Amino acid sequence: MIHWTSRLYVGEKLKKKKKKAIQSINNQKVTFGIYCITFASHPDNLFDIMDANELMFPHYRRSDICIVGLANGKDEAIGLVQDMLMEVYRETGDFKVKSYFT
């Protein structure tokens, strides 16, 4: 099941289309160029960056996925992750992203 954090980060290129992107993801519609930033699926990582269309696969629908960021393109997603990590570290002095965002 897909969950959305209340502190959702959205890239500059996607701000005007945020609602439409969220609706498309929730309704399992095909999106073009939208990338999701989620909590990491592997405990050694902090975040995963994935194409929003991957979330339509049954595996992800059965998994517990929390989306913390949306971006238009992979490059913007990488930049957004950098901004998120800098904020978490600046505010907490640590990289415990799950506790920061939940």
Question: Secondary-structure blueprint of this entry?
Answer:
Blueprint (H helix, E strand, L loop, with lengths): L1 E9 L7 H9 L7 E6 L7 E5 L6 H5 L2 E8 L1 H19 L4 H5 L1
Parallel strand pairs: 1-4
Antiparallel strand pairs: 2-3, 2-4
Report on this model:
There is one protein chain. The chain is of the alpha+beta class and 102 residues long. It has one domain (2-96). Helix content is 37%, strand content 27%. The chain contains four helices and four strands. The protein has helices spanning 18-26, 58-62, 74-92, 97-101; strands spanning 2-10, 34-39, 47-51, 65-72. It has a four-stranded mixed sheet with strand order 1-4-2-3, with helices on both faces. A hairpin with a 7-residue loop joins strand 2 (34-39) and strand 3. The mean pLDDT is 92.
> Low-confidence parts lasting 5 or more residues at pLDDT below 50?
none
Radius of gyration: 13 Å
Counted beta strands = 4
Structural class: alpha+beta
User: Which bin fits the share of residues in helices?
Assistant: 25-40%
What characterizes the major β-sheet? 4 strands, mixed
Which percent band covers the strand fraction?
25-35%
In order across it, which strands form the biggest sheet? 1-4-2-3
The overall number of domains is 1
Q: Which series of helices and strands comes N to C? A: EHEEHEHH
CA-based shape: globular
How many H/I helical runs?
A: 4
User: What is the distance, rounded to the nearest whole angstrom, between the alpha carbons of the first and last residues?
Assistant: 16 Å
What is the average of the pLDDT values? 92
